[in-house]
């Protein structure tokens, strides 16, 4: 047996109202009589005990067992009391005694429930339980009261006991709830007033109508407070399907006791008393309970709608989130394309203009994307800080046609945000195919993995059009990366990575003044692997720390052995950002310098610009520390990245290495030459040494000389040589052609 999927509040309150009316009719027509109703109520409780395991699934097994037992005991007791109204146990009447006994397990449950009441989704049950218990106690009391003939000492005594028991119980409930959950304080007070008022009314209205009416009014007031301030169901926070399930279960869990309370209230209704106010009170309480149920259910609905919205949407952009994307990918009904979009350049906006502007740009990008994608029948998601995803109908080769427009939609974003326009923001994209009918979990994961690989391909493929479609080739590249990583880890562990040395030459004298150490790796299985390939792989896996340390140590060792330092010639070693940021890097450098007794200024550490872009990065501290040690700091590949100059006077930089691509542009026309001239001028003015990389021809060398660039490096002079040829290179004097081009 399963629970109803969605117990609609309207249906619920309608049925509660129907039961109320039925009860009121019963009360007026005196049919069925109290005894029959008691039997019926008892049977309902017995049946309900079977349902307890269904509605109390959240609790531990012991809790469920306790609840089942309590409901069954109370059901059996009530049934027995109804069946044998005139039986006696010795001097005592049977019905109240058996009912009192059968109430003990219920009391135990309620006490337990109150004790463990916490802010959270248990919060409503103690209250419901307290209402229920108070009603039951009142029912028994009323039973005894009626039995005693409404008047006289016995009746008064029964009534007084009843008032005291109920009041103290409700007071206890109120205290516990108020301590645990201050929000419910008023609710608890309402409950207490209502219960006490009801009892007063029940006990005294026959003899003292005015006091009785006051009691009834208090009862109504308490009911009103309960209706208005009734506990709202607290929901599981994480939302999603789990929250929706929890809400449903709670709703049913709330409906069952409420129904049972109604059944017990019926006992009041059919008691032999013609008190219209009493009936009004009963009607009010029941209608109030129904209303409260409806209000709570509506609040639950709204909250659960909000929660499931929150669970599936990104608060910043309002787009659907990663969970929603996974849901959409789980059971695709047609061929679609998944596009993962990475926004680049956002960090600059955030760093310079602040987080708020960065978020504004993201919001604009999200809006543009949605505007662009919705007419294509697609949907837009934000899956990470700077990553969006699109699901578009059709296979990737078809969808790829829309991608230039999609990428433009992202690039347009900063122009829509005041002040952000001067920072270019771009997007890279990876596409994969989503096939219908793929098994559930694999279906959700595979396209994501593929699109991610394609995105990575787009990222590492600078000549691409900004996006890449997942293919066998992309998969093969990924496999190759994994292989390289695996083999490289072994090579680093075995010290199998070698170091070669490329001379750096004074452009005017032709003398070698420095060597750059370059990692070389020949693998038995993969053959020679270029550092252009394996360094990025090493960086991804942190392997670069061990690799870098090995290269640094080996380079210094070999250069030292070849007499490089003795000749006053410098050594440059490449250091990756990851390596620079690894703990203890400066200590490693210090230790190597002291082991070989090398003047620190003879060691240059080549870093790329990315190190300096993030002004909060710990890398800056390390750079400063290294410079304080006396090492020289070189900016590698200058002119390829951001070419921000700001950090040049903020940080200890000694050397600027002009990238090969700029060198090539010297002779290919265009304004490459003026760019290099400007950079060289600036560097000279800041007192930095300029190294022109990738000098391959005399022409290039001559141009560099004419620009007053100090040093050159490139195949014109020498490619990187093995360590045993370093001594030879030291002696070499490279011809300097005099012509100015
Ligand atoms: P890089 O630091 O810019 O190194 C210079 C690269 O240019 C070297 O490639 C060198 O062989 C090449 N090169 C030198 N002269 C010429 C020339 O005239 N024309 C052309 N076309 N190329 C020339 P290599 O050795 O393949 O290194 C590539 C990159 O790998 C390096 O670029 C550097 O970023 C990285 N790398 C190499 N060794 C290491 C290392 O030990 N640690 C780290 N972190 N990176 C390294
Ligand atoms: Ca370098
Ligand atoms: Ca370089």
UniProtKB/TrEMBL annotation:
Sequence intervals crossing the membrane: 37-55, 67-88, 94-111, 123-142, 154-179, 186-204, 210-231, 252-270
Domain EAL: 481-734
SUPFAM superfamilies cross-referenced by the UniProt entry: EAL domain-like (SSF141868), Nucleotide cyclase (SSF55073)
GO molecular function, one term: cyclic-guanylate-specific phosphodiesterase activity
Domain GGDEF: 334-473
SMART domains per record: EAL, GGDEF
Family annotation (CDD domains): EAL
Superkingdom of the organism of origin: Bacteria
Keywords: Membrane, Transmembrane, Transmembrane helix
InterPro entries: Cyclic-di-GMP_PDE-like, EAL_dom, EAL_sf, GGDEF_dom, Nucleotide_cyclase, Rev_trsase/Diguanyl_cyclase
Pfam families noted in UniProt: EAL, GGDEF
Stretches assigned to coiled coil: none
UniProt keyword annotation of Disulfide bond present: no
PROSITE patterns in alphabetical order: EAL (PS50883), GGDEF (PS50887)
Protein name in the entry: EAL domain-containing protein (Putative c-di-GMP-specific phosphodiesterase class I)/GGDEF domain-containing protein
Organism per entry: Kineococcus aurantiacus
Taxonomic placement: Bacteria, Bacillati, Actinomycetota, Actinomycetes, Kineosporiales
């Amino acid at each position: 047996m399963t629970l109803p999927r969605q117990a609609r509040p309207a249906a619920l309150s309608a049925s509660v109202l129907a039961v109320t009316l039925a009860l009121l009719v019963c009360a007026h027509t005196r049919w069925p009589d109290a005894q029959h109703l008691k039997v019926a109520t008892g049977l309902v409780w017995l049946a309900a005990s079977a349902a307890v395991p269904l509605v109390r699934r959240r609790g531990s097994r012991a809790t469920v067992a306790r609840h089942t037992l309590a409901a069954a005991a109370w059901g059996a007791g009530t049934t027995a009391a109804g069946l044998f109204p005139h039986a006696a146990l010795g001097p005592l009447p049977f019905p109240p005694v058996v009912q009192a006994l059968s109430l003990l397990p219920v009391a135990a449950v309620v006490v337990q429930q109150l004790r463990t009441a916490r802010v959270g989704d248990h919060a409503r049950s103690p209250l419901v339980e307290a209402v229920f218990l108070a009603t039951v106690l009142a029912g028994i009391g009323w039973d005894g009261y009626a039995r005693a003939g409404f008047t006289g000492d016995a009746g008064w005594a029964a009534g007084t006991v009843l008032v005291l028991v109920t009041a103290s119980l409700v007071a206890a409930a109120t205290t516990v709830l108020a301590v645990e959950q201050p929000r419910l304080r008023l609710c608890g007070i309402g409950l207490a007033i209502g219960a006490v008022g009801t009892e007063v009314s029940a006990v005294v209205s026959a003899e003292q109508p005015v006091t009785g009416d006051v009691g009834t009014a208090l009862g109504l007031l308490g009911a009103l407070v309960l209706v208005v301030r009734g506990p709202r169901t607290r929901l599981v926070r994480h939302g999603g399907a789990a929250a929706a399930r929890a809400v449903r279960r709670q709703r049913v869990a709330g409906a069952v006791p409420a129904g049972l309370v109604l059944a017990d209230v019926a006992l009041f209704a059919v008691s032999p008393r013609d008190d219209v106010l009493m009936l009004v009170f009963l009607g009010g309480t029941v209608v109030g309970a129904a209303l409260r149920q409806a209000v709570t259910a509506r609040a639950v609905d709204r909250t659960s709608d909000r929660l499931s919205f929150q669970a599936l949407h990104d608060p910043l952009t309002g787009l659907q989130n990663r969970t929603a994307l996974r849901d959409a990918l789980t059971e695709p009904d047609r061929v679609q394309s998944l596009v993962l979009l990475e926004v680049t350049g956002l960090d600059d906006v955030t760093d310079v203009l602040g987080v708020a502007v960065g978020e504004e740009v993201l919001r604009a990008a999200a809006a543009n994307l949605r505007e662009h994608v919705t007419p294509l029948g697609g949907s837009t998601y934000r899956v990470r800080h700077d990553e969006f995803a699109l699901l578009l109908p059709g296979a990737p080769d078809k969808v790829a046609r829309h991608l230039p427009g999609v990428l433009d939609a992202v690039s347009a974003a900063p122009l829509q945000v005041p002040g952000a326009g001067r920072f270019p923001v771009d997007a890279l994209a990876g596409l994969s195919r989503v096939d219908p009918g793929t098994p559930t979990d694999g279906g959700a994961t595979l396209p994501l993995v593929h699109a991610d690989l394609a995105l990575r391909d787009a990222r590492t493929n600078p000549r691409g059009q900004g996006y890449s479609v997942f293919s066998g080739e992309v998969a093969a590249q990924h496999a190759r990366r994994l292989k390289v990583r695996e083999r490289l880890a072994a090579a680093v562990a075995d010290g199998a990575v070698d170091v070669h040395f490329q001379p750096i030459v004074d452009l005017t004298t032709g003398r070698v003044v420095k060597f750059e150490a370059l990692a070389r790796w020949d693998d038995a299985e993969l053959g020679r692997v270029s550092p252009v390939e394996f360094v990025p792989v090493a960086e991804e896996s942190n392997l670069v720390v061990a690799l870098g340390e090995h290269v640094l140590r080996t380079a210094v060792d070999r250069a030292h052995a070849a007499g490089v330092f003795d000749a006053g010639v410098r050594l440059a070693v490449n250091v990756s950002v990851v390596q620079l940021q690894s703990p203890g890097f400066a200590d490693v450098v210090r230790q190597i310098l002291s082991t070989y007794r090398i003047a620190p200024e003879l060691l240059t550490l080549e870093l790329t610009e990315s190190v300096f872009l993030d002004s909060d990065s710990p890398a800056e501290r390390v750079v400063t520390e290294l410079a304080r040690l006396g090492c020289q700091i070189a900016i590698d590949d200058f002119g390829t990245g951001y070419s921000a100059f700001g950090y040049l006077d903020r940080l200890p930089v000694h050397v600027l290495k002009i990238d090969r691509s700029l060198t090539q542009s010297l002779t290919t026309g265009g304004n490459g030459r003026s760019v290099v001239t400007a950079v060289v001028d600036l560097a000279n003015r800041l007192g930095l040494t300029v190294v022109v990389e990738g000098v391959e021809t005399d022409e290039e060398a001559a141009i560099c000389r004419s620009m007053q660039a100090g040093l050159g490096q490139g195949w014109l002079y020498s490619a990187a040589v093995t360590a045993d040829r370093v001594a030879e290179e030291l002696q070499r004097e490279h011809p300097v052609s005099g012509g100015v081009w």
